[in-house]
Model the fold of this input.
Amino acid sequence: MKLTVLGSGTSHGIPVIGCSCPVCCSEDLRDNRMRASVYIEGDEGERVVIDTGPEFRIQALRAGITALDAVFLTHGHADHVHGLDDVRSLSYEHEIPIYGNAETMTEMESRFSYVFKNTQRGGGKPRISLNAVNGPVHIGGLTMTPVPVKHGILDILGWKIGRGEEAGDQRSFGVYLTDTSFIPPQTLGLIRGPEFLIIGGLRERPHETHFSFEQALNAGTEIRSPRVYLTHICHNHSHREISAYCNRFREKRGLEGMVMEPAYDGMELVFPADLKKSGEPCEDRLSRT
Ligand SMILES: [Zn+2]
Ligand SMILES: [Zn+2]
Ligand SMILES: [Zn+2]
Done:
Protein backbone atom coordinates (compact mmCIF):
# COMPACT_ATOMS: atom_id res chain seq x y z
CA MET A 1 0.00 0.00 0.00
CA LYS A 2 1.10 3.52 -0.57
CA LEU A 3 -0.02 6.67 1.21
CA THR A 4 0.65 10.12 -0.23
CA VAL A 5 0.23 13.27 1.85
CA LEU A 6 -1.79 15.59 -0.41
CA GLY A 7 -1.85 18.41 2.13
CA SER A 8 -0.32 19.01 5.57
CA GLY A 9 -1.48 22.52 6.42
CA THR A 10 -4.01 23.86 8.88
CA SER A 11 -7.35 25.43 7.89
CA HIS A 12 -5.88 28.53 6.20
CA GLY A 13 -3.08 26.70 4.34
CA ILE A 14 0.47 28.05 4.03
CA PRO A 15 1.23 30.64 2.70
CA VAL A 16 -1.65 32.37 4.45
CA ILE A 17 -3.42 34.94 2.28
CA GLY A 18 -1.97 38.37 3.03
CA CYS A 19 0.76 37.10 5.40
CA SER A 20 4.43 37.96 4.94
CA CYS A 21 5.87 36.07 7.92
CA PRO A 22 9.13 34.12 7.40
CA VAL A 23 7.30 30.78 7.03
CA CYS A 24 4.79 32.11 4.48
CA CYS A 25 7.74 33.61 2.53
CA SER A 26 10.01 30.55 2.97
CA GLU A 27 11.84 29.16 -0.06
CA ASP A 28 11.71 25.67 1.49
CA LEU A 29 9.07 23.78 -0.52
CA ARG A 30 8.14 21.85 2.63
CA ASP A 31 6.79 25.11 4.10
CA ASN A 32 4.16 25.26 1.36
CA ARG A 33 1.22 23.39 2.88
CA MET A 34 -2.19 22.83 1.35
CA ARG A 35 -5.20 21.78 3.40
CA ALA A 36 -4.85 18.40 5.12
CA SER A 37 -5.64 15.27 3.11
CA VAL A 38 -4.09 11.89 2.22
CA TYR A 39 -4.42 9.55 -0.77
CA ILE A 40 -4.11 5.78 -0.32
CA GLU A 41 -3.42 3.24 -3.04
CA GLY A 42 -4.09 -0.38 -2.05
CA ASP A 43 -2.19 -3.46 -3.24
CA GLU A 44 -5.05 -4.44 -5.53
CA GLY A 45 -5.37 -1.03 -7.14
CA GLU A 46 -7.85 0.41 -4.63
CA ARG A 47 -7.79 4.21 -4.54
CA VAL A 48 -9.27 6.28 -1.74
CA VAL A 49 -8.77 9.70 -0.18
CA ILE A 50 -9.30 10.90 3.35
CA ASP A 51 -10.87 14.38 3.15
CA THR A 52 -11.38 16.57 0.10
CA GLY A 53 -10.32 20.08 1.10
CA PRO A 54 -10.58 23.25 -0.99
CA GLU A 55 -7.43 22.32 -2.99
CA PHE A 56 -8.58 18.80 -3.84
CA ARG A 57 -8.50 19.50 -7.59
CA ILE A 58 -4.88 20.75 -7.48
CA GLN A 59 -3.87 17.94 -5.15
CA ALA A 60 -5.47 15.27 -7.36
CA LEU A 61 -3.69 16.64 -10.44
CA ARG A 62 -0.35 16.76 -8.60
CA ALA A 63 -0.71 13.20 -7.30
CA GLY A 64 -1.91 11.85 -10.66
CA ILE A 65 -5.24 10.62 -9.28
CA THR A 66 -7.27 9.28 -12.20
CA ALA A 67 -9.92 7.26 -10.34
CA LEU A 68 -11.39 7.03 -6.86
CA ASP A 69 -13.22 4.12 -5.21
CA ALA A 70 -14.32 6.05 -2.13
CA VAL A 71 -13.89 9.19 -0.04
CA PHE A 72 -13.54 9.04 3.74
CA LEU A 73 -14.27 12.20 5.70
CA THR A 74 -13.03 13.14 9.15
CA HIS A 75 -15.55 15.96 9.76
CA GLY A 76 -17.43 18.73 8.04
CA HIS A 77 -15.15 21.74 8.52
CA ALA A 78 -14.50 23.70 5.32
CA ASP A 79 -10.79 22.86 5.17
CA HIS A 80 -11.66 19.14 4.98
CA VAL A 81 -14.64 19.00 2.64
CA HIS A 82 -14.96 22.05 0.40
CA GLY A 83 -13.36 20.32 -2.58
CA LEU A 84 -15.89 17.48 -2.54
CA ASP A 85 -17.61 18.69 -5.72
CA ASP A 86 -14.35 18.16 -7.62
CA VAL A 87 -14.68 14.37 -7.41
CA ARG A 88 -17.26 14.97 -10.17
CA SER A 89 -14.85 14.25 -13.03
CA LEU A 90 -13.91 10.95 -11.36
CA SER A 91 -17.56 9.95 -10.92
CA TYR A 92 -18.68 9.66 -14.56
CA GLU A 93 -18.17 5.88 -14.68
CA HIS A 94 -19.48 5.04 -11.22
CA GLU A 95 -20.97 6.67 -8.19
CA ILE A 96 -18.37 7.45 -5.50
CA PRO A 97 -19.42 6.52 -1.95
CA ILE A 98 -18.61 9.05 0.77
CA TYR A 99 -18.12 7.70 4.30
CA GLY A 100 -18.13 9.55 7.61
CA ASN A 101 -20.03 9.76 10.88
CA ALA A 102 -23.76 10.55 10.87
CA GLU A 103 -23.23 14.18 11.86
CA THR A 104 -20.82 14.80 8.96
CA MET A 105 -23.13 13.09 6.46
CA THR A 106 -26.05 15.30 7.56
CA GLU A 107 -23.80 18.31 7.23
CA MET A 108 -22.76 17.27 3.69
CA GLU A 109 -26.39 16.86 2.67
CA SER A 110 -27.12 20.48 3.52
CA ARG A 111 -23.75 21.94 2.44
CA PHE A 112 -24.00 20.28 -0.99
CA SER A 113 -27.80 20.31 -1.18
CA TYR A 114 -27.85 20.92 -4.96
CA VAL A 115 -26.30 17.47 -5.44
CA PHE A 116 -29.10 15.67 -3.61
CA LYS A 117 -32.13 17.72 -4.68
CA ASN A 118 -33.94 16.95 -7.90
CA THR A 119 -34.13 20.57 -8.90
CA GLN A 120 -31.09 20.39 -11.20
CA ARG A 121 -31.23 17.98 -14.15
CA GLY A 122 -28.37 16.71 -16.28
CA GLY A 123 -24.65 17.12 -15.62
CA GLY A 124 -22.77 19.49 -13.41
CA LYS A 125 -23.17 17.43 -10.27
CA PRO A 126 -20.86 14.80 -8.77
CA ARG A 127 -22.35 11.30 -8.54
CA ILE A 128 -21.87 10.59 -4.86
CA SER A 129 -23.69 8.75 -2.09
CA LEU A 130 -23.53 9.57 1.60
CA ASN A 131 -22.93 6.68 3.99
CA ALA A 132 -22.91 7.10 7.76
CA VAL A 133 -20.71 4.41 9.30
CA ASN A 134 -20.01 2.96 12.73
CA GLY A 135 -17.72 0.12 11.73
CA PRO A 136 -15.06 -0.94 9.20
CA VAL A 137 -15.57 -0.30 5.49
CA HIS A 138 -14.01 -2.72 2.99
CA ILE A 139 -12.85 -1.36 -0.34
CA GLY A 140 -11.37 -4.35 -2.19
CA GLY A 141 -8.56 -5.58 0.05
CA LEU A 142 -8.42 -2.31 1.96
CA THR A 143 -10.11 -1.97 5.35
CA MET A 144 -10.88 1.52 6.60
CA THR A 145 -11.96 1.61 10.24
CA PRO A 146 -13.48 4.77 11.75
CA VAL A 147 -11.62 6.02 14.81
CA PRO A 148 -13.69 8.34 17.06
CA VAL A 149 -11.77 11.30 18.54
CA LYS A 150 -12.63 14.70 20.01
CA HIS A 151 -12.00 17.97 18.15
CA GLY A 152 -12.88 20.47 20.88
CA ILE A 153 -16.49 19.59 21.71
CA LEU A 154 -17.03 17.92 18.32
CA ASP A 155 -17.06 14.15 17.85
CA ILE A 156 -15.11 13.52 14.68
CA LEU A 157 -13.35 10.57 13.05
CA GLY A 158 -9.81 9.55 12.35
CA TRP A 159 -9.25 6.51 10.12
CA LYS A 160 -7.32 3.32 10.64
CA ILE A 161 -5.94 2.08 7.32
CA GLY A 162 -5.38 -1.66 7.06
CA ARG A 163 -5.38 -4.62 4.74
CA GLY A 164 -8.30 -7.05 4.53
CA GLU A 165 -8.32 -9.67 7.25
CA GLU A 166 -5.14 -8.37 8.81
CA ALA A 167 -6.65 -5.03 9.59
CA GLY A 168 -8.15 -6.22 12.82
CA ASP A 169 -5.19 -8.07 14.24
CA GLN A 170 -2.88 -5.16 14.90
CA ARG A 171 -0.21 -6.46 12.54
CA SER A 172 -0.28 -4.13 9.63
CA PHE A 173 -2.02 -0.81 9.65
CA GLY A 174 -1.50 2.92 9.79
CA VAL A 175 -3.56 5.59 11.53
CA TYR A 176 -4.57 9.03 10.30
CA LEU A 177 -5.84 11.45 12.95
CA THR A 178 -6.23 15.09 12.02
CA ASP A 179 -7.97 17.86 14.05
CA THR A 180 -7.70 16.05 17.38
CA SER A 181 -7.70 17.48 20.91
CA PHE A 182 -8.52 14.29 22.86
CA ILE A 183 -8.32 10.57 22.14
CA PRO A 184 -10.87 8.59 24.22
CA PRO A 185 -9.45 5.52 26.06
CA GLN A 186 -11.58 3.07 24.01
CA THR A 187 -10.17 4.58 20.82
CA LEU A 188 -6.61 4.19 22.12
CA GLY A 189 -7.27 0.46 22.43
CA LEU A 190 -8.38 0.31 18.80
CA ILE A 191 -5.31 2.00 17.34
CA ARG A 192 -2.33 0.85 19.46
CA GLY A 193 0.80 -0.20 17.58
CA PRO A 194 0.30 1.13 14.04
CA GLU A 195 3.20 1.05 11.59
CA PHE A 196 2.79 4.78 11.26
CA LEU A 197 0.71 7.54 12.77
CA ILE A 198 -0.08 10.78 10.98
CA ILE A 199 -1.48 13.12 13.61
CA GLY A 200 -2.54 16.76 13.75
CA GLY A 201 -0.06 18.98 15.61
CA LEU A 202 -1.03 22.59 15.04
CA ARG A 203 1.76 24.59 16.73
CA GLU A 204 3.91 24.78 19.84
CA ARG A 205 1.38 26.75 21.90
CA PRO A 206 -1.75 24.95 23.14
CA HIS A 207 -5.04 25.37 21.26
CA GLU A 208 -8.62 24.64 22.32
CA THR A 209 -9.50 22.26 19.51
CA HIS A 210 -6.15 20.92 18.26
CA PHE A 211 -3.19 19.09 19.75
CA SER A 212 0.00 21.12 20.13
CA PHE A 213 3.26 19.54 18.90
CA GLU A 214 3.96 18.20 22.39
CA GLN A 215 0.45 16.77 22.84
CA ALA A 216 0.58 15.12 19.42
CA LEU A 217 4.00 13.59 20.07
CA ASN A 218 2.85 12.43 23.53
CA ALA A 219 -0.15 10.77 21.87
CA GLY A 220 2.19 9.14 19.34
CA THR A 221 4.26 7.75 22.21
CA GLU A 222 1.16 6.46 23.97
CA ILE A 223 -0.19 4.88 20.77
CA ARG A 224 3.25 3.23 20.41
CA SER A 225 3.82 3.90 16.78
CA PRO A 226 7.46 3.74 15.66
CA ARG A 227 6.81 6.46 13.07
CA VAL A 228 4.93 9.63 13.96
CA TYR A 229 4.36 12.40 11.42
CA LEU A 230 2.74 15.73 12.32
CA THR A 231 0.18 17.29 9.99
CA HIS A 232 -2.40 20.16 9.98
CA ILE A 233 0.47 22.54 10.73
CA CYS A 234 0.13 26.33 10.99
CA HIS A 235 2.54 29.06 9.87
CA ASN A 236 4.11 29.75 13.30
CA HIS A 237 7.02 27.38 12.64
CA SER A 238 9.05 26.30 9.61
CA HIS A 239 9.48 22.64 8.64
CA ARG A 240 13.09 22.80 9.89
CA GLU A 241 12.06 24.27 13.25
CA ILE A 242 9.39 21.60 13.76
CA SER A 243 11.87 18.91 12.81
CA ALA A 244 14.29 20.27 15.44
CA TYR A 245 11.44 20.37 17.98
CA CYS A 246 10.68 16.70 17.28
CA ASN A 247 14.36 15.79 17.74
CA ARG A 248 14.52 17.56 21.10
CA PHE A 249 11.33 15.77 22.19
CA ARG A 250 12.79 12.37 21.25
CA GLU A 251 16.07 13.04 23.05
CA LYS A 252 14.33 14.32 26.18
CA ARG A 253 12.10 11.23 26.31
CA GLY A 254 14.79 8.73 25.31
CA LEU A 255 12.91 7.79 22.13
CA GLU A 256 15.90 7.90 19.77
CA GLY A 257 14.77 4.80 17.86
CA MET A 258 11.48 6.41 16.85
CA VAL A 259 10.79 8.50 13.78
CA MET A 260 9.11 11.80 14.72
CA GLU A 261 8.88 14.39 11.98
CA PRO A 262 6.60 16.95 10.42
CA ALA A 263 4.87 15.65 7.27
CA TYR A 264 5.04 17.68 4.05
CA ASP A 265 2.94 17.87 0.90
CA GLY A 266 4.07 15.11 -1.47
CA MET A 267 5.47 12.84 1.28
CA GLU A 268 4.92 9.15 0.54
CA LEU A 269 4.85 6.14 2.84
CA VAL A 270 4.95 2.64 1.38
CA PHE A 271 3.77 -0.05 3.78
CA PRO A 272 3.80 -2.61 5.31
CA ALA A 273 7.07 -3.95 3.85
CA ASP A 274 10.13 -1.70 3.89
CA LEU A 275 8.24 1.27 5.19
CA LYS A 276 10.26 4.16 3.96
CA LYS A 277 9.47 7.76 3.63
CA SER A 278 9.92 9.04 0.10
CA GLY A 279 8.42 11.60 -2.21
CA GLU A 280 9.86 15.00 -2.99
CA PRO A 281 8.07 18.10 -1.75
CA CYS A 282 5.67 19.33 -4.42
CA GLU A 283 7.55 21.64 -6.77
CA ASP A 284 4.73 23.63 -8.28
CA ARG A 285 4.64 25.91 -5.28
CA LEU A 286 1.79 28.31 -4.81
CA SER A 287 2.81 31.81 -5.80
CA ARG A 288 2.64 34.52 -3.19
CA THR A 289 3.00 38.26 -3.30
ZN1 LIG B 1 -8.96 21.21 9.96
ZN1 LIG C 1 2.47 33.55 7.74
ZN1 LIG D 1 -11.76 21.00 12.11
User: Anything to note?
Assistant: The chain has one domain: 2-278. The pocket of zinc ion (ligand 2) is lined by residues 16, 19, 21, 23-24, 235 (CB under 6 Å).
